[in-house]
Amino acid sequence: MATFWIILTAILVSSACAILGCFLILRRMALVGDAISHAVLPGIAIAFLWSGSRDSLWMLLGATVFGLLTVFFIQSLQAGGLSSDASIGIVFTALFAVGVILISLNAQHIDLDLDCVLFGEIAYVQWDTLTLGGTDVGPRAVWMLGITLLVILLVIGLFYKQFKLCAFDPALAAACGIPVVLFHYLLMGLVSMTSVASFESVGSILVVGMLIVPAATAYLLTDRLGKMILYSVLVGAASSVGGYIMAYALDASIAGCMVAVAGILFVLALLLSPKHGIVFRYARRKFAAR
Amino acid sequence: MWNWIVAILSDPNTRWILLGCLLLGFSSGIIGSFTFLRRQSLMGDTLAHAALPGICIAFMLTETKSVGLFLFGALVAGIVATFGISWITRYSRIKQDAAMGIVLTVFFGIGVVMLTRIQHGASGSQSGLDKYLFGQAASMVMTDVYVMGSVCLVLLIACLAWFKEFKLVSFDPGFARGMGLPVAMLEQLILLLTVIAVVAGIQAVGVVLVAALLVTPAAAARCWTDSLALMVLLAGVFGALSGATGTIFSTLVPNLPTGPVTVLAATVLFAGSALLAPRRGLLARRLRSIQAKSAYLREERATLQTISAQRAQQERGEL
């Protein structure tokens, strides 16, 4: 049963991340996901200090607020003329520093472990269960991630056309009367929500990895957004299952192995993708030369 | 005020940490200026994460916890990572930011796998390794400062020796290529120097925050000047200042970690610069726009007045 819950949790995380990751890759904001997942730390710490409990709802709220704040700060610095990579670097390191300081100053009073927040262990998912009306209904993480995934599917499904246009051609989208900024914040809100919902249970490596790597792999395999999202989710799921098997064989970190498998799949796509792969392009060039 | 500074400096241990953080801030500020101008500010973050498997392999192979060995492992992993990034961007349609993200997470993931293997292994104690994630400036000793000092020296000499080349490559790679400079090699050299700075910084401020030492002082310095030489120098000074502030504050308050305070000090310097700098600062720009607006209004009012005066004269003349 433990295996089932762990793999289910991983697939939920990777699917949510894979869908959002496609839009991040297309908008050239791959590292914004990394930044958000680190910058939400003060949100988690403040929510914890304020509410005094490890109740997920407060942490989710605090972290989402800080995720959006991060995006806002990055946007403001960019509007001030700073390049996007520098704005990201300045904002998320500053917020992360605030988070580390908050936690280390209050470390005696609270039981919020830095390692635990950042490197949550997916193997413990099954023990933190949710009870509804006296009956055990399964791990809390599965519920939280399931709801997150549902929200993502709903929002992206409802506004698919708008998101698509914003991803490929923001200028055209703005000209068509789509509120580009609103959709930007909506996407970033979803990213922060996902990173937080996954954080506690699976740790930040898995989130950041699954945001970028499967989507990049899918980007090498197709030119259509719909297919890219589908492939991305499939690659994420395959990495989850493959990573679990690898972790079992090696007796090592499950999240780390999942990201490693995603990396292997990416390298395979990089080499062997029919249209964009190195091997086939090389072969085609040889063939054309003859 | 003066008394407690003297009191802090009289503790030899603190003196070493202070010197180490100062040197670290200085050298990362200098090399950070080039990565900043080349829009590779997040390279620091990427390389810091990517160094983890190198550190783990160094430990697995030798079973000893020596700083020099870890630095060597991290250096090798960092170099492999920079090649990976250039390789992915050159041979596929993946853009640089995504390539950096992929290398960052996959290397770090592999590093975590190795870390847990070490933890579960018979040799047990890995307590020195997790310090690398969050940094432990307080555990710096004299030899570490020597390492830091030599790193600083190497970076400084390299930046001085190739200043003109780095300048050209940072501002106009196309022109540099036209002049016959080995641009690809120079770019790789800048990345190599960045790796060295990052690896030196990991021990003091940790994996995530090492990025800040490269970006934030450089961005702050950029606000004040348009001259590269001055910017590089200012970035170094800002970095050193942040390092010193971090050390001093963390010795004053119990449980306050040095790395994050250093980063916040750099952030405050950046915020001050972005606000107050004479030409590029927010305040100066706001002031300029207000002045421009009021000058425009004054001019317009004057024109209106002359027009109405002329009209009045015309009317009087007609009467």
UniProtKB/TrEMBL annotation, chain A:
SUPFAM superfamilies (alphabetical):
ABC transporter involved in vitamin B12 uptake, BtuC (SSF81345)
The compartments listed are: Cell membrane
Claim: Transmembrane is one of the keywords in the record: yes
Q: How does it sit in the membrane?
A: Multi-pass membrane protein
Q: What is its main location?
A: membrane
Q: Does the keyword Transport apply?
A: yes
Offer one example of a GO biological process linked to this entry: transmembrane transport
Kindly list the GO CC terms recorded for this protein: ATP-binding cassette (ABC) transporter complex
Lineage, top-rank taxon, reads: Bacteria
Q: Which family does it belong to?
A: Belongs to the ABC-3 integral membrane protein family.
The protein here is known as Manganese/zinc/iron transport system permease protein
